[in-house]
Amino acid sequence: MTATPAAAQDANLHFPVSTFGTPGLIDMPTGKVFSDGTFGLSSNFRQGTQRYNLTFQISPRIFGAFRYSIIDDYGTSRDTLYDRSFDVGYLISEETGLRPSVVVALRDFGGTGVYSSEYVAATKHFMDDRLSVTGGMGWGRLGSYGSFGNPLGMISNAFDTRGAGPSGITEVGRLEADQWFRGDAAFFGGLAYQVNTRLSFKLEYSSDAYETEVANAGFEHKTPINAALTYGFKNGADLSVYALHGSEIGFMASLPINPQKPTYASGIEEAPPALLPRQTAAALSWDEASVQSKTSPLSAALRDQGITLEGITVNGSTATVRVSNGRYPAEAQALGRTARVLANQLPGDVTTFRIENTANGMTTSRTTLRRSDLEALEYDLDGSWRSYARAQFEDAPRTEAKAIVDAYPKFDWRLTPYLDPALFDPDNPVRADFGLQAAGSFTPVRGLVLSGAIRQPLAGNLDESTRASNSVLPHVRSDVVEYAKQSDLQIKHLTAEYFFRPGTNLFGRVTAGYLETMYGGLSTELLWKPVNGPLALGAEVNYAKKRDYDQLFGFQDYDIVTGHASAYYDFGAGYLGQIDVGRYLAGDYGATVSLDREFDNGFRVGAFFTLTDVSFDDFGEGSFDKGIRFTFPTDWLTGAAVQGGYGTTIRPVQRDGGARLDVRNRLYEVVRGSQTNELEDRWGRFWR
Predict the structure, then answer these.
(1) Mean pLDDT across the stretch 354-371?
(2) Is the CB of residue 629 less than 8 Å from the CB of residue 605?
(3) Both ends of the chain: CA-CA distance in Å?
(4) Is the pLDDT at 640 greater than 90, yes or no?
(5) For residue 678, how many C-alpha atoms fall within 13 Å in the half-sphere facing its CB?
(6) In b/e form, how buried is each residue of 52-80, taking b as 16+ CB within 10 angstroms?
(7) Closest CA relative to residue 493, chosen from 514, 510, 523, 477
(8) 573: number of CA atoms within 13 Å, CB side?
(9) If DSSP codes are grouped into helix, strand and coil, which group holds residue 199?
(10) Rounded to an integer, what is the distance from CA 487 to the centroid of its chain?
(11) Among residues 182, 176, 140, 138, which one has the least CA distance to residue 160?
(12) How confident is the model at residue 635 (pLDDT cuts 50, 70, 90)?
């Protein structure tokens, strides 16, 4: 695919981002978007104001941003304002030789409304893409300088008057649709010129009058002209210095992260074993009984690859094996290594391998591979897609592999550092604890897992928060700070889990014990998930009882029965949708809608919102539960073949409405990694 002029300009300007974290010049936006999948971090500082931005190009046309701003002496109270806001933008048209790229967007559409505005912007490139010119029209703050009557008023008189926005803390977070593209409008514009491969210059005419800052924060608005110099580094990072409205000097740093380009593109694990020439059973000194032990050469060879052999049956020319992948983040890579070990360890007259994947003792899928295909495609330039096309995938509700006699019991433990952040406390925006976590699991028989984790904080300030919950709902989440203040050694979870297969395409889980930081009890779940289908349906019922604040063995008086019916859908191209409908921890009823994008290397980003029968006023600050979440897989960061990663959820505020139990090992995530859609996405690792 050939690069568009805008794409070429992006390559030169690295990460052309505004002080608001979205595609832009300085304060003004542009009609551009970032490269698909780009994840961006930026921060900027000027006298009295700090902004920290997180941006993600959700699709080739849609971008979203989360912003955290610290503004000194803001408003009539002259207090420091800690402001959280979201943006979303859509690329209406891409740039061509004759027309510009055009973007329409909402800024600060679900927060306090401090930066509330909307805009339409167009950008065109000239001079071999060294010069970009932007023009646009804004509303709200972007329609406050040089304003004129709203041209959309010709469509309807409703566009002439802009809504007042949130009037108090309980209205913050609502979608103020009566403001969108309403009220007076104003023009803005600017240009960016690439001086050389590192240095660029930006000049803009701003339509933001900074009215509140001028009236209350001592800001001087001398001119609508802003200018900036930007220096780009080889890794895509930018540093900028800018002059704002003739009265302020500011500084900005930005860093783009491409989830599709891991730190180590090919990984740093050892190469897989090469296929050996077929040998007879006599040459291998092989018989079926000899492999029914974990001390057999076959078990040892698989164990060297991080794979545990749990069962094997050889019937004529077909070998059926049941394996557990304990190393590779991509199940396709575990399948490829298993197949090569089988080809090297089993006699030549075994021509078909049926590999049963397992998770927590459950069989999750069965993949059938022909030995001749492995031999023909091992060094084929198109071996990945051809091997996938020739493989067969099916459900395996009942294993057909005879169990290895001494496969169980299993024991595992680890000692690791942990970081537990708590963001956006208005009294202290960043709080965190650091310490050590010891975790262990014992699996006495297939499907039954006994596990626990304890933490010992070593340093941090989570226990220093003085904010008490003012929620009118049961305090099911809003007093979470008490668990940090009243605990030292902490039992994070201590559970017994049983995983089982009730039937074809059905998966079951029962979990009992101390389920999470704040709750213990009993959780049951049933999932219907066809191996080859994009749709999954699930149901979960829980009895939850609130734990004591010391996070040891006691309980408080509060208990509740909760549950949800869930629908999951894989839209393809890495997009995953989920809807959960049911009863939440505070006794409220409603639904949570989620959309995630997962890249082939496991990097994942998503957003969600929950609406229940709790009114916005009773919910309190934020009006309803919402947030964004990220997962950074360990192998993406280090290149090592290691499962797991670091994940976090960013909420503007944590309240009690729409709060759900945080149960480990919900079935959809346990099962989907070894089923067809996920295997197809990550099949490029089959030969790795």
Answers:
(1) 96
(2) yes
(3) 27
(4) no
(5) 26
(6) bbbbbbbbeeebbbbbbbbbeebeeeeee
(7) 514
(8) 7
(9) strand
(10) 30
(11) 182
(12) confident
d(CA 561, CA 542): 6
Assess contact for 38 and 14: CB atoms under 8 A.
no
Give residue 120's Cα distance to chain centre. 28
> Six-digit token pair at 478?
């809003």
Structure-token pair, residue 390: 């020739």
Q: How high is the pLDDT of residue 4?
A: 43
Q: How far apart are CA 407 and CA 324, in angstroms?
A: 11
**Region 59-87: what's the mean pLDDT?**
83
CB neighbours of residue 442 within 10 Å: 15
Q: Using alpha carbons, select from 131, 259, 286 the residue that is nearest to residue 195.
A: 131
How many CB atoms lie under 10 A from the CB of residue 122?
21
User: DSSP letter at 270?
Assistant: P
DSSP state of 204: E
Contact 200, 232 (CB under 8 A): yes
Contact residues for 221 (Cβ-Cβ < 8 A; gap 6+): 145, 209, 210, 214, 245, 246, 247
Range in 373-377, 419-423, 675-679 with the lowest mean pLDDT = 419-423
CA angle 631, 633, 636 (to 5 degrees): 130
- How many Cα atoms within 13 Å fall on the side-chain side of residue 534? 11
In this structure, the number of other CB atoms found within 10 A of the CB of residue 146 comes to 15
Nearest alpha carbon to residue 580 among 540, 542, 545: 540
Q: Quick one: the chain helix, strand, coil %, rounded to 5?
A: 15, 45, 40
Backbone angles phi, psi at 384, to 5 degrees: -65, -60
Give me the numbers of helices (H) and strands (E) for the chain, helices first please: 12, 30
Residues 207-230: tens digit of each pLDDT: 999 988 888 777 889 999 999 999
> Tell me, what's the pLDDT at 1?
35
Distance (Å, whole) CA 378 – CA 686: 10
- Residue-wise pLDDT for 125-173, tens only, equals 999 889 999 999 999 999 999 999 999 999 999 999 998 776 555 556 6
Amino acid at 216: N
**Residues 505-557 pLDDT 10s:** 999 999 999 999 999 999 999 999 999 999 999 999 999 999 999 999 999 99
Confidence check: pLDDT of 588 > 90? yes
The yes-or-no verdict on residue 638 having pLDDT over 90 is no
d(CA 529, CA 397): 11
Mean pLDDT of the chain: 89
Pinpoint the alpha helices (H) of 346-476.
Answer: 371-377, 383-390
What is the model's pLDDT at position 173? Answer: 60
Q: Are 647 and 629 in contact (CB under 8 A)?
A: yes
Q: How far is CA 564 from the centre of its chain?
A: 22
Kindly state the tokens that stand for 215. Answer: 């009236």
> CB neighbours of 126 closer than 8 A, spacing ≥ 6?
132, 133
The pair of three-digit structure tokens given for residue 59, joined into one six-digit string: 């699709």
For helices 297-304 and 331-345, the axis angle rounded to 10 degrees is 150
pLDDT at 606 over 70: yes
Provide the b/e sequence for 12-30 (b: ≥16 CB within 10 Å).
bbbbbbbbbbbbbbbbbbb
Whole-number Å distance between alpha carbons of 683 and 669? 18
Q: Which residues contact residue 253 at a Cβ distance below 8 angstroms, ignoring those fewer than 6 apart?
A: 42, 43, 44, 237, 238, 239, 240
Please tell me the distance from the alpha carbon of residue 80 to that of residue 429, in angstroms, as a whole number: 12
Predicted pLDDT at 2:
38
Give the model's confidence band at 266: pLDDT under 50 very low, under 70 low, under 90 confident, else very high: low
